[in-house]
Amino acid sequence: MNDPQTAGASVGSKSFTVISKRQQQILDYLGTRSMVTVNELVAATGASPATIRRDLVRLDDEGRIYRVRGSVSLKSSGSRQPTTSEKRTLHHEQKIRIAEEAVKLVHPGDSVLLDAGTTTIEIASRICEMPLKVITTDLNIGILLAPHRNIDLSLTGGTVDWSSQSCIGDLAREVLLRIHPTVTFISCNAWDLRMGITAPTIEKARLKADLLKQATKTVLVADSSKYGNSQLFEVGRLSQADLIITDSDLGGEDAEKVRNAGVSLKLV
Question: Is the domain of 170 the same as that of 102?
């Protein structure tokens, strides 16, 4: 039986309805854990996955939550960006598989540019014993690689973004536009065949667009939970990446459409 819902007040031209006790439970749970998966909400509420997904669709429609395929967080007054620490445990096995495949493209003596992100952190942890020149915008990657004398490490500098602990802004872009690494690994929060690669802020979109242009080989590393989503600011088309590495949870039909559009795609 559906939860009883009654019409409530309107704000501007948008009407909101009274949410159910279970939906309030979801919001309360999110308030203490920032970002969770559907399975966690199933365990917390005792409801079925299908019921939880319906609740999340409704809460998203009313602007109460922020959904990324496979996970959800509360929405604040702006478009909320999950932090690196929140994202690191999400889809972790998939990110490991992607990183292990990505490392096969790196050879001793290469120059490697690592975008900020939890998947690129996994890549960094797997190249730290190789003699390389590494350039990154990510402070977490910088800390990880700094103790390794075989790594010639450079941070771009720039304004530090609080959510990703990475460098953005004109200073970071000025550095990136002056280098041409052997391979660049780009991460993203959202990718889609029609909308391309998108980002939540104009600063991140401009920086990632620069990354697409500079390398001998550009590789998008993004788990399948991010596919089919889009954010406000365009970075570039999927075809601008020389290769996309994602996990095999991407549906066969979606993978076929991406490849048919002329995009090189590797599933792991």
Answer: yes
Q: Taking 90 as the threshold, does the pLDDT of residue 74 lie above it?
A: no
Q: What is the pLDDT of residues 138-148, one digit of tens each?
A: 999 999 999 99
The per-residue DSSP string of 88-108 comes to TTTTHHHHHHHHHHHGGG--T
Residues 68 and 124 in one domain: no
Residues 167 and 192 both lie in one domain: yes
Count other C-beta atoms under 10 Å from residue 3's C-beta: 12
Contact 236, 197 (CB under 8 A): yes
Same domain, 115 and 176: yes
Bridge partners (DSSP) of residue 240 are: none
Cβ-in-10-Å burial (0-12, 13-18, 19+) of 38 comes to middle
Tell me, yes or no, whether 145 lies in a domain.
yes
Task: Identify whether the C-beta of residue 191 lies closer than 8 Å to the C-beta of residue 197.
Answer: yes
% of the chain exceeding 70 in pLDDT? 84
Q: What's the CATH number where 58 sits?
A: 1.10.10.10
Residues 141 and 28 in one domain: no
Q: pLDDT digits over 169-211, tens only? A: 999 999 999 999 999 999 998 899 999 999 988 999 999 999 9
Domain range enclosing 136: 92-267
Count of domains for the chain: 2
In the predicted structure, residue 215 carries a pLDDT above the cut 50:
yes
User: For residue 186, what are its two tokens?
Assistant: 């780009």
pLDDT at residue 68 greater than cutoff 80: no
Residues contacting 16, CB < 8 A, separation 6+: 8, 9, 10, 62
Does residue 124 sit in the same domain as residue 241? yes
